[in-house]
Amino acid sequence: MAASLLRLHFHRYTNFHYIIGCDASVLFDDTDTFTGEKNADPNINSLRGFEVIDAINSNLEFLCPGIVSCADILATVARDSVVLSNGPGWDVQMGRKDSLTASFNDTNNNLPFPKEDLNTLITKFQKAGLDIVDIVALSGAHTIGQARCSTFNATLHDRSSSAEPGDLDFLASLTQFCSNSPDSDNPLAPFDLVTPATFDNQYFINLLSGEAVLPSDHALVAGNSPTLEIVKIYARDHQSFFTDFTRSMLRMGSLNPLTGENGQIRRNCRVIN
Known about the structure:
By secondary structure, the chain is an all-alpha fold. It has a domain at 141-246: Peroxidase, domain 2 (Orthogonal Bundle). Helix content is 47%, strand content 2%. The chain contains twelve helices and two strands. The chain has helices at 2-13, 50-63, 70-84, 104-110, 118-127, 132-139, 153-162, 165-180, 202-208, 215-218, 228-236, 238-253, and strands at residues 146-148, 188-190. It has a two-stranded antiparallel sheet. Helix 6 crosses helix 12 (238-253) and helix 7 (153-162) packs antiparallel against helix 8.
């Protein structure tokens, strides 16, 4: 659940809605007259943990109504999920307001996809004011959690045909996870087969060993990638990764937030007041 709650934070903050930014719009439910973001292609069958946010929101509204926004809850829960997974902590910037709308189309068009190449990822991050250090550091969130096999199954055969002998065991392990998953409809495989529930730098060690689950992960180390040297630094020094990850989380969390008279503090994170 820690990885899922961190992903909730990412899937709104990295949506790169350049005007609104960090606004908890991902929490809206669809209605007969309103289309939210939960069923957009990058989110459907991927995001979970909404009930956890509901419970926190309900308790806060009971104790101090109208004070803490759903956007700030997401930011705080993401931080706590990292800490509870043995990762770093940071002082969460508070004071955001919640959006009055959502953007299904922006989610489909602007959220980074797991099959995208590095140039596409760089372009999307740069449009949001983030750089290649942010790309690599934030990708390190894949040190915990799982990926749906549908996001990489199509590339397994191609990767196997060109893989080094040492990489074939890893690709076989992925195939086995996907074949033996208890959820046969939406099989899952861990991003990090070594320490899947611990927030550490093992993800970067795995990348350098050819054990990248998603094509977008592999892109960080492919060829003469400009991100390769950053990956090597993080693989050698977990503290460098932790320092840059917290910096990037704070940068991402400050992308054009709604403040002041803009937006509202939702009493129920799933609907407008």
